[in-house]
Amino acid sequence: KIGKIKERGRRGKKLKKNRNTPNYRSMSSTIVIRTVDIDNPQTWRYLLLEYPSEFVFRGAIYQNGRECWEKFKSENEEDWEDKRDNILKELLQAKFNQNKELKDYLLASDVYEIRFDDEDEYLGSGEDGDGKNMLGETLAMVRDEHRLAKIREAMNF
């Protein structure tokens, strides 16, 4: 398996193994991604905005998601809070639609919660763990869209 999956409950506490349950990891497991892991191939680094992945977004070519994110953030300072959800979703869709290998890694995250362990209160879990984790939430949303598209394709819809 790629990366580390930390077994944590909803409030971040470690889960105890239940000897009566053969697969105690179930859906409460969390994939934790960190920017400091960008050079470590044993992590889920492929999901990070900083991971090198050329893609086209709104007519321009970007070398990674962070470059795109920062450009749009600086261009939309006045109404950034209103636009950032849509921009994040659209740029992640573009990144994973245009990079099959990265899409496969995203799909490999299965049904796990994705948590971006970063001090950024919007993109990450925040300094105190109370952040919005929008990168993790949006990655999961894009993953589910790709999974649904695969199912529809298999069923010839």
Description:
By secondary structure, this protein is an alpha+beta fold. Helices cover 38% and strands 11% of the residues. It is built from four helices and five strands. The strands form two sheets. A three-stranded mixed β-sheet has the order 1-2-5. A two-stranded antiparallel sheet has the order 3-4. Helix 1 runs antiparallel to helix 2. The protein is globular and about 45 Å long. The two termini are 31 Å apart. The N terminus is likely disordered.
Secondary structure: elements and pairs:
Elements: E1 5-7, E2 29-33, E3 55-57, E4 60-62, H1 65-75, H2 80-97, H3 100-108, E5 113-116, H4 134-154
Parallel strand pairs: 2-5
Antiparallel strand pairs: 1-2, 3-4
Helix pairs in contact: 1-2, 2-4
Low-confidence stretches: 1-28
Main β-sheet description: 3 strands, mixed
- Round the mean pLDDT to the nearest integer and report it: 84
* Percent of residues in helices: 25-40%
Features:
157 residues; globular; alpha+beta; 38% helix; disordered N terminus; 4 helices; two-stranded antiparallel ribbon
Short description:
The chain has about 160 residues and is of the alpha+beta class.
